[in-house]
Specification:
heterodimer, A: 454 residues, mainly alpha, Formate dehydrogenase/DMSO reductase fold, 18 helices, 0% strand, B: 429 residues
């Protein structure tokens, strides 16, 4: 028997029944696309097409199209890569870690967050692949494939190679986890449909029959995948941080990087979930499922992770001074007061100062404020990676090699391409897949809806 | 919601004479072992003439000071983790743990004693524990002048002259204990006051105080780790260190909470805490043992991989020492391999016997973790794990147990008006 304390906020409002859940979520899949959705898709596909000009130019001419130079060999490419991978953390965190912590509020947002994760990881993976210059040979650089190119063999000591393994494993598990969760909901849509739609959703649902045995297997698989996904979600950003921290570059080599990158990833991931869900709940009229309570809890996660990131920034700064290592001290002073001061202070303002506004209940329960701050956090986390990567590189060990980085149109265009890809995929998902996990939400209708508490 | 339950919500722990006697026996055993350890090192110690001439001779009491410091820092951590975990339950709106809230809180009773011990030990032993307390390091005319330590001297001495009185360091120590003791008392008073009230107002009030404590704890625990431990190896630095010490404290604290809960259940108390709640505690111990290993490994790997001499010296000193290198592996075996393998299965987390063994060994294991943080920098090759270490650990352990059990006795063991108590009864996993 389940008991819910009276001090808990209801997770479902509006007195919804099981039938309402099915109807409210399936209606988007079954109805005609709305004008807003079509316009959104046009914008996303437009960005995709415009950005692909830059992508094709880069692939045709080589990565000389980018603004990289001899000193700054990594800039927007890796910044964008880490930014997208970070965003790709929230989905699996919500589904797996919050599942292990039995946080029921995850149920309304996990489906969309997982979809977002998968699309973000796809966008992230584009950058290392493009950076290979000749991606058609990329498999030889990224995987230990026997070949006749001479000395071409992967470096197992390199964290970049560990990244290939970590991210591809994470992507596979996240994809399977997401799809398995979708199966019962596809079956629900199949059962309501006729004609072609019935055939398509029937095929997608793998012949789900809803028998007790089927549900039992489904739950075992979900738990095993959650157990696998939890260490994976931590390992991915840990290894991304190793890309920098195993080096001896001042500003990159610091031991706090692994947990701090993971916290930053969760921070940016939740911000992107909020950006997307605030629009989705409004457009699809899902306010009774994704309530202000859900938004408030996500904002609390943002305060916590933002503060962890803030403590890490201050720790790095302090230890740079405390270490007595001149190069380390210079790297941090240069970050804050050198030519890239504006990037550093954008990062500090967006990531550390502005999320503290969520301590005010008025702000963290305001849709408008949350939406704005979620964008601010996403901007701040992009700057964080830019600050770490570019400001640490631009002052080389030899002052004669000091340089600045200026992005070219190709840098900007390829980034735009990933935005186009991300939103195109997300909009297609939102229209054709159930955006809320109906089966899971139904399991808490009895215990956590308004009717029970009031 | 109107569930009637037959649990005795006014149960009080009886600190029996026989339990007191057991604790006193362990204390006595600790004192005896410690005394034997001191005597052996008094008469068995070797003389290092060269060191003696330079004023750095090793004396038996150096080892006593190092032991005092290891246990002070370790048990302070366990005590503050009790308050931290209590605060987490409120901040996270956890329902499952309601039956054991008072167990978590009881650990905090050690904090005032720990604060006094810490400050007294620092005043007595600072020159033998902390290299940076020597004024010659900051004197440019002295042959032993150290420009790196001079560079960070302000962290200890500001606003006084470097090498004089470490006012900044002491103020921080007093402030951290002050904050922790204040919030412990605040949360304790609010929690016990709730027993005489009803309604959820107090729950949200405690939640608010918990959130403030967590923010302050996040900052103070890291700085405390730099102050009390990292500065022993004065040249060395690692940005991860604060979180590393926190992870070690947290697992040890969780193990102590689990052991006390199992002990109380064994005595017939806390009957609303069943194997489901024990399972959750086991999962916490399991998960955060892996978390500690993750932090340990990340710090080690990054320093090992980059191999910058200023940083790698820390691990070289330990791994290449005959005294300490075995304990690196003891540390990893007890704190990672053991809980990882034993607590993997569901059953091992639901049966008290496995948890009792694993948690006891983890408490010992994390003691070794702090042993490895403190002794190499204070005693060098003169350190080791002997009778003095075992004795001092038993003394601190039994004193800590006495304080905690004394605080549990005579008061309600269960937060009977907690709004999530009913939820906790029906917790099934």
């Amino acid at each position: 028997m389940q008991v819910t304390s009276s001090v808990r906020e209801p997770l479902i409002t509006g007195g919804k029944t099981l039938k309402d859940v099915t109807h409210d979520v399936s209606r988007q899949v079954e109805g005609k696309p709305t004008l807003g959705w079509i316009l959104g898709l046009l914008v996303a596909v437009g960005a995709l097409l415009l950005g692909s000009l830059a992508l094709v130019a880069t692939l045709w001419e080589g990565i000389g199209m980018w603004g990289l130079n001899k000193t700054i060999g990594w800039a927007w490419d890796i910044t964008n890569f880490v930014w997208w991978v970070g965003i790709g953390h929230a989905g699996t965190l919500i589904s797996a870690v919050l599942l292990l912590f039995r946080q029921k509020w995850r149920m309304a947002i996990n489906r969309a967050a997982e979809a977002m994760t998968i699309f973000a990881v796809i966008c992230a993976a584009m950058f290392p692949v493009i950076h290979m210059g000749r991606p058609w040979l990329g498999a030889y650089w990224a995987l230990p494939l026997p070949n006749t190119f001479g000395s071409l063999w992967v470096n197992f000591n390199s964290p970049l190679l560990w990244d290939v393994f970590a991210i591809s494993t994470y992507f596979s598990v996240s994809l399977v986890f997401w799809y398995i969760g979708l199966i019962p909901d596809f079956a629900t849509i199949r059962d309501r449909a006729t004609g072609l739609r019935k055939t398509i959703y029937g095929a997608l649902s793998f012949g789900w029959d809803g028998a007790a045995k089927t549900w039992s297997r489904y739950e075992s698989v979900a738990l095993i995948l959650a157990g696998l996904a939890t260490p994976l979600v931590l390992s991915v950003h840990t290894i991304v941080s190793f890309d920098f921290a195993t080096s001896v570059i001042p500003g990159w080599h610091t031991t706090i990087f692994p947990p701090y990158f993971v916290a930053g990833a969760i921070f940016s991931g939740f911000a992107m979930v909020l950006t997307l869900m605030i629009i989705t709940r409004k457009v699809f009229k899902l306010e009774d499922y994704i309530t202000i309570g859900h938004i408030e809890l996500m904002n609390i996660v943002i305060i916590i992770t933002g503060s962890i990131v803030g403590i890490a920034y201050i720790t790095e700064f302090f230890i740079a001074w405390y270490s007595g290592v001149a190069a380390e001290q210079y790297a941090f002073i240069n970050r804050a007061f050198g030519p890239y001061w504006w990037a550093y202070w954008s990062m500090m303002t967006c990531n550390v100062i502005s999320p503290q506004l969520f301590w005010f209940k008025k702000i963290r329960t305001s849709i408008v404020a949350t939406f704005i701050l979620s964008l601010v956090v996403n901007i701040g986390m992009w700057f964080e990676r830019f600050v770490i990567i570019v400001t640490s590189l631009h002052r080389d060990f030899l002052p004669s090699s000091w340089a600045m980085f200026y992005p070219t149109l190709s840098d900007i265009g390829v980034y735009l391409f990933t935005f186009g890809l991300f939103f195109t995929l997300f909009l297609l998902f939102a229209k054709f897949f159930p955006v809320i996990n109906m089966a899971e939400v139904k399991s808490i209708v009895k215990s956590s809806s308004e009717k029970v508490n009031k | 919601m109107a569930q009637v339950s037959n649990y005795n919500l006014d149960q009080k722990f009886d600190f029996t004479a026989s339990l007191k006697k057991t604790i006193m026996t362990v204390l006595g055993l600790g004192v005896a072992l410690f005394a034997v350890g001191v005597i052996t090192s008094l008469f068995g110690g070797h003389h290092d003439e060269a060191a003696e001439a330079s004023g750095h001779a090793y004396h038996w009491y150096h080892r006593v000071f190092a032991n005092l410091w290891i246990n002070n820092v370790y048990f302070t951590g366990i005590a503050v983790i009790g308050v931290f975990f209590f605060a987490i339950q409120y901040a996270a709106q956890a329902g499952w743990s309601t039956g054991i809230l008072r167990v978590m809180l009881s650990l905090g009773n050690w904090l005032p004693i720990a604060g006094v011990l810490m400050i007294v030990t620092f005043f007595v032993a600072s020159h033998d524990l902390f290299h940076w307390t020597h004024s010659y390091l900051f004197d440019k005319n002295d042959p032993q002048y150290d420009y790196i330590i001079d560079g960070k001297g302000a962290y200890f001495y500001w606003p006084m002259e470097k090498g004089s009185f470490p006012i900044f360091f002491i103020i921080r120590m007093i402030a951290f204990f002050g904050i922790w003791v204040f919030f412990f008392n605040k949360l304790k008073n609010l929690s016990f006051a709730e027993d005489n009230l009803s309604g959820s107002h107090d729950w949200s009030n405690i939640r608010k105080w918990s959130a403030i404590f967590l923010v302050l704890f996040a900052v103070s625990s890291s700085i405390a780790a730099w102050d009390w431990i990292m500065s022993i190896d004065t040249h060395w630095f690692s940005t991860m260190f604060g979180w590393y010490v926190f992870a070690s404290w947290f697992v040890a604290g969780l193990s102590v909470i689990t052991l006390i809960t199992l002990f109380l259940k064994g005595k017939g108390y806390l009957e609303m805490v069943n194997e489901n709640h024990i399972h959750d505690l086991g999962k916490f111990v399991f998960a955060f043992s892996i978390f500690w290993t993750y932090i340990w490994f990340s710090q080690f790997l990054l320093i090992y991989y980059a191999n910058i001499p200023e940083e790698s010296v820390y691990f070289v000193e330990r791994l290449q020492s005959d005294v300490y290198s075995p304990f690196i592996f003891v540390n990893l075996a007890l704190n990672f391999v053991l809980p990882f393998l034993v607590l993997m299965t569901r059953d091992s987390k639901r049966h008290g016997v496995f948890l009792k063994v694993v948690c006891s060994l983890i408490i010992l294991g994390h003691w070794f973790d702090f042993f490895l943080m403190v002794q190499p920098g204070t005693l060098g090759h003169n350190g080791g794990f002997g009778l003095m270490e075992i004795g001092m650990l038993l003394i601190f352990g039994s004193a800590f147990a006495f304080v905690v059990f004394k605080s549990l006795a005579g008061k309600n063991l269960v937060a009977k008006n907690h709004p999530m108590l009913e939820e906790s009864y029906h917790h099934h996993i």
